[in-house]
UniProtKB/TrEMBL annotation:
Domain Enoyl reductase (ER) as annotated: residue spans: 14-324
Domain of life, source organism: Bacteria
Keywords assigned by UniProt, alphabetized: Oxidoreductase
Residues that span the membrane, as ranges: none
PANTHER family listed in its UniProt record: ACRYLYL-COA REDUCTASE ACUI-RELATED, SHORT-CHAIN DEHYDROGENASE/REDUCTASE
Protein known as: Acrylyl-CoA reductase AcuI
InterPro entries: Acrylyl-CoA_reductase_AcuI, ADH-like_C, ADH-like_N, ER, GroES-like_sf, NAD(P)-bd_dom_sf, Zn-ADH-like_protein
GO molecular function: acryloyl-CoA reductase (NADPH) activity
EC identifiers of the protein: 1.3.1.84
Keyword Oxidoreductase attributed: yes
């Protein structure tokens, strides 16, 4: 038996998520079994646990799009018992039982080897959020953005993706503007490396199609009017990496910044990144972070506390990253 958060939806109780003991025989098919040390709570996990969006496609489902742990059994030549592994994405915690549990059974092709200088806990402080932040930076750099191009603006900066993006950009030598709706997190964001704090209210309402060119590039984690305003505010030849929808799925923008400033809007999807690229991005992350940084942007809870903390995350009350200790 192992402990897992389990989401069910039935007539008697409606949509609900609770911690329970699960028999190992119920694990879904997969060729690698992992004893999970740490998982995390991402925005998507909070949506799944709270039922606020149709993330879960079949029931019962164990949520958790991330985990880090130790291989306990493997039918695949790439992984052997004792190997330290990380999983993010691939529909795990959505269509296949996920990481908010003490054990998982997955396909070998979904796993990456934990970089030597990262612990399972550190890997999960990074998690899907940090992995996505790194993908966004790589996407901007692919468009020719460098620290010499000018400053980069990051929306949703007090959240998970935003906080890691601010700190990674600062470490790479970029000047960073952090957009937040939480003025109380000013010192936290300055400590992560932001040079300027911008109130969310400057960007989250309908704006002009073309605005003062303020930034060389943007990483947007919230979508909607904020994404439209960021596109309207990047300099000629600039780039915007869009990865999130915390404000909304809509994109009420005009073509003006594209045809008059030649900007590029690049979409980022962390779920289906091929394994070789994943391994490379994890090595990049391992080389950029250190323990002090990771501790400064994270908090920890247990599996027993995860449902309550997911509701806090939905309410915008969690800062940075929240790791979940699974055993
Ligand atoms: P968090 O909840 O940790 O952070 C989201 C942040 O967005 C909040 O902290 C808040 O920042 C800001 N925000 C919330 N509501 C609003 C609003 N109404 N208007 C403007 N800003 C708002 O989530 P994550 O960092 O885990 O994820 C961020 C987004 O990225 C989510 O939409 C998630 O689904 C998406 N995502 C996408 C991935 C991909 O592969 N494309 C992978 C990972 C995440 P503040 O308080 O500082 O304003």
């Amino acid at each position: 038996m192992f402990r897992a958060l389990v989401i069910n939806d039935n007539e008697a109780e409606g949509y609900h998520c609770r911690l329970q003991d699960v028999d190992e025989s119920q694990l879904p098919p997969g060729n690698v079994t992992v004893d999970i040390d740490y998982s995390t709570l991402n925005y998507k996990d909070a949506l799944a646990i709270s039922g606020k969006a149709p993330i879960i496609r079949s029931f019962p489902m164990v949520p958790g799009v991330d985990f880090a742990g130790t291989v306990s059994a493997s039918d695949d030549a790439t992984f052997a018992p004792g190997d330290k592994v990380i999983l993010t994405g691939w529909g795990v915690g959505e269509r296949h039982w996920g990481g908010l549990a003490q054990r998982a059974c997955v396909e070998a092709g979904w796993l990456v080897k934990q970089p030597d200088n990262l612990s399972a806990r550190q890997a999960m402080i990074i998690g899907t959020a940090g992995f996505t932040a790194m993908l966004c930076i790589n996407a901007l750099e692919k468009q020719g953005i460098t620290p010499a191009s000018g400053s980069i603006v990051v929306s949703g900066a007090s959240g998970g993706v935003g906080g890691v993006a601010v700190s990674l950009l600062a470490r790479l030598g970029y000047q960073v503007s952090a957009v937040t709706g939480r003025p109380q997190e000013r010192d936290y964001l300055l400590q992560l490396g932001a040079a300027e704090i911008i109130d969310r209210s400057e960007l989250d309402k309908p704006g002009k199609p073309l605005q003062k060119a303020r930034w060389a590039a943007a990483i947007d984690t919230v979508g909607s009017h904020t994404l439209a305003n960021l596109c309207a505010s990047v300099m000629h030849g600039g780039a915007v990496a869009a990865c999130g929808n915390a404000q909304g799925m809509d994109f009420p923008a005009s073509v003006a910044p594209f045809i008059l400033r030649g900007i590029t809007l690049t979409g980022v999807d962390s779920v289906t990144v091929p394994q070789a690229q994943r391994q490379h991005v994890w090595q990049q992350l391992a080389g950029l972070v250190d323990d002090a940084l990771l501790e400064s942007l994270s908090d920890e809870c247990t599996l027993d506390e995860a449902v309550d903390r997911a509701h806090q995350l939905m309410a915008g009350e969690i800062r940075g990253r929240l790791v979940v200790k699974c055993r």
